[in-house]
Amino acid sequence: MSDSQPGRIREDRWPLVAVAGLLSFVAMLDMNIVNVALVDIADGLDVSAATAQWAVLGYQLPVVALLLPVGRWLDGVGLRPALLTATTGFALCSAFAAAAPSAGWLIAARVVQGACAAVLFVLMPVLAIRSVRPQLRGRAMSVPATLGPLGAVTGPAVGGLLLDHWGWQAIFLVKVPFCVLALAVAWRAMPRDGGLTKPDRRSLADAGLVASGVTLLLLSLTLGTWWLALAAVPPLWRWLRGPGARPLTGVLHVPGLLRAHSAVLALAAGFAAMHYVVALHLQREDGVSATTTGLTVLAFPLGMGLAGPVGGRLADRHGARPVAVAGAALTAAGLLLLVPLGDGWSPPDLAWRLALAGIGMGLNGGPTQALVMGAAPPDRASTAGSAVQLARSLGFTLGPALATAAWGFAGPGGDGARAGLALAATAACLAVPLLARPPRQTAATPLTQE
User: Fold this and answer.
1) Element (H or E) spanning 80, and its range?
2) Is 164 exposed, middle or buried (0-12, 13-18, 19+ CB in 10 A)?
3) Which residue from 4, 42, 205, 410 lies 20 to 30 Å from 346 (Cα-Cα)?
């Protein structure tokens, strides 16, 4: 057993925590950065806009669909070889995508890259928490928990800059140097801790069931085709009834963890719904330029980036739960303050409210993840990490879908925007009681950071 396991840390390895944050940022950056280049990709490869869209979906779908199967697989393999293999694959796929001579080549590279990213998403919180002593978990977890979402929200701005100066190929190549840096640090700093094993036939069958079900569910939310959600029920139900789901259900049965995962989903849905409504309303209803809109919504990631390290330090000093609750409450307050703005939205009025909500998300991210990873059984850390990432990803997808439905129900203009913002605020408010109630402690329940 490596000394990188929880409870056996001989020295804190902060370079590995930095690697976790860097790779979280890069993997989440890829979720949105390609969106701004779809027109150029379609023109460059001489394909339709619908075909070019698969440069995005080809990455996003395997990322989310494979999270749970990857989490189960990673619980039984070495952390070091898994990280080195996934990071190398991610970098190579970036280079292959940039060199794509056809849409088929590009989509294939993006699908494989999405599978590598799924491994990275699950590994990063595990790497962070196993690289430091337990009393420093909040500080360590705040790094990937903050930098990951920052990658998602800054993706379009970074992508636009690269597109204007170097073309769509640069959007894929920009991630390669960061991956090389992460590989160099991980190769030197990570202890050897085993090898990789091929999944058995039963695991592959379970992976097929959960991946197909989650893919259908995501497509139903993305495309607004609700009958696909019904088609997702049979494979997911069959998987839940089988042995493949037992590691996940075991994790969620740990007192408090189901509520913590629900809080992660609720906050992600609230943030995504707010981001969608604000950007759409500013440009469509108020006629604000894309540049002004982008600068206004950047107040959220700015607040989040500043508060993330503070949240980790406060969690290590005062306990993860009160800091996570305070962060969720601040996020909810910021979103609630958006609802009564009325029809005349000025960028400054929006910006300070978004900054307040971002500060709350920064305070909440690391402590919440520390709560989950600290309470999970040590041999199920990757499964717990995959469940958190799936909850966050589903929230990011569910938020805009629900905001669109609320907007359509309330009607066009300010009423629709307020309905969407009210839904976003409600989702964030739900997270507060979910996190505030401490779990019931039993003899078999591991102690968590309170």
Assistant:
1) helix 79-98
2) exposed
3) 410
